[in-house]
Write a structure and sequence with these properties.
alpha/beta, Nucleotidyltransferase, domain 5, 2 domains, 5-stranded mixed β-sheet, 10 helices, about 20% strand, globular, binds 5'-O-[(R)-(carboxyoxy)(hydroxy)phosphoryl]adenosine, binds zinc ion
Length: about 350
Amino acid sequence: MPTTVLGLETSCDETSAAVVVADGGNAGATLASCVILSQDVHSVYRGVVPELASRAHLASIGPVTDRALADAGLDLDDVDLVAVTAGPGLVGSLLVGVSYAKGLALAAGRPLVGVHHLEGHLFGTALEDPAAVPPFVGLIVSGGHTLLIDVSGWGRYRLLGETRDDAVGEAFDKVGALLGLGFPGGPAIEREAARGDPGRYRFPRPMLHGGQRPADPDYLDLSMSGLKTAVVLAARSAADPEQERAHLARGFQDAVIDVLVAKVLRAVDLTGRPRVVLGGGVACNRALRAALREALAGRGRALHAPSPRLSTDNAAMIARAGLFRAAEAGRPIEAEARLPFPGLERA
Ligand code: KG4
Ligand code: ZN
């Protein structure tokens, strides 16, 4: 049974390495170190440029890994298992992590396991919060994905709902660009929204209306494109868009939060799960966390949200998921842009 796991994550624009140590019997795990290098270069281009991301991963993966081992007070010899994100993500970025992990595992004579990035997000919170364990409803809201998942046990997942178009983080990024707030848009929109007037703009709440029934296909699904268009139209018709910026950001963020809260409540009502675990970069949004926490408390349910460093992409969650998947070490691993979610049942 491996006890010390080195995790590597390079699926998008964070180069990250982390060490996680199992607490006897694989019941839980302790975070020994986590180094995350965010690539700033993309902000100039208002989006992730895959070629630049791959090159930056190549330059950083070695030093980031060395630093994670040093922070944990360990050598490569102390590592029992190497875990790496195999997908989904940018294939050129994934290839850097997967190739490096293969070399490292071979050099150290240690087993290697491939991890699904989104399964990693489900595990992130548990590293800081021992109560963030199944059964729960998982809400993953990142730049690339938006998923509501019923987690009856680790490895046993049922898809409840997903976005039909843009991911929530992607919508934050696109609206941020429209409002001239730079990239990524999420943190800037949150800052602007905090000083915006909540009554100024009332944008549509896509796929949310009282007439929906649990059997309807859009009952738990989400959509962001209509909301995004509504913000574009409002911004275009504003006499002084600069002056409206905070109000537009507030109107947009409130609409997103209303939809997410409503869908999460529907999911807990349907499944009866006692808690909700949040993951993905948008989980950093304090207004979202506060609204979810309050709404769930009203139902006697708890929200478990990771700290910001474990919300956005990081290798700690990959190491933790790798520990769970340790028995699969030795299977061939390829970087796959569209890797299927292991154990995910679609309703
Ligand atoms: O999970 P993540 O680091 O990368 C992906 O796997 O996509 O998520 C990045 C996303 C970006 O779209 C970013 O705008 C969003 O998370 N984000 C936020 C906040 N911080 C990051 N969205 C809303 N509010 C925030 N405070
Ligand atoms: Zn992610």
